[in-house]
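Final report, section 2: Outcomes. Of the targets proposed, DUF1510 family protein is the one most frequently requested by collaborating groups, and we therefore present its record in full.
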Amino acid sequence: MDNQYQNGTRSRYRAKRKKTNIILNSLIAIVILLILAVGFSIFANNDDAAPPKQAEKAEAGANAKKPDPNSSEGKEQAGSNENESDENEADQNENGSDESTAEEEESAEPVVQEGGSSPNVKSTIENPGWKPAGTSQTGPHEVTVQQGTADWDDMHNALAQAIGTDKNNMTTWWLERDRSTEGGAIGTVTAKGSDQAYRVYIQWVDGQGYKPVKVEELYENDKK
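The predicted structure is given below as tokens.
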């Protein structure tokens, strides 16, 4: 009888102890979960709060660097920006204009028309691609039709360019001032070894020499 009582008591004690352990373990698990939850909440709140502070700092920095447009400093900076924009636009327009002009000159074809200033003219040629032939002359210029002068050499460079030859491979039959235009001259020339005569009109360009402006292809050399 005593043994049965002792065995019953032990069983109840073990069951009670087991139940107590289960309750304690459950409480410990709940406490750990609460700690993790609180810690996660704290970190999450810190992360959410950080970006607005950084944004406020960035905005404050931008506002500090950007002058008030109504202040004298702001007006000066605005005026400077406008001037820079105008200068850049002007440079682009100028460069675009120069490039367009150069392209037009390169792509331009000579214009050939029948007849000319007299019945002896077979055709008249004008070439937008002609350029001044160069010069070594400086200062005020006056047309000088005199052999051995710098002006004589400059004229012959332009005459030769107009008919597509070298001045040393050209015969000049006549050269005179063009009374119809200031700084102009007219020459009748042939390439050596050819009977084709040309009447060439040239025009002085300051600092750049004479430039061909018109060539008349003649039926006959009227200056022989």
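The helical segments are 2-65, 72-107, 150-163.
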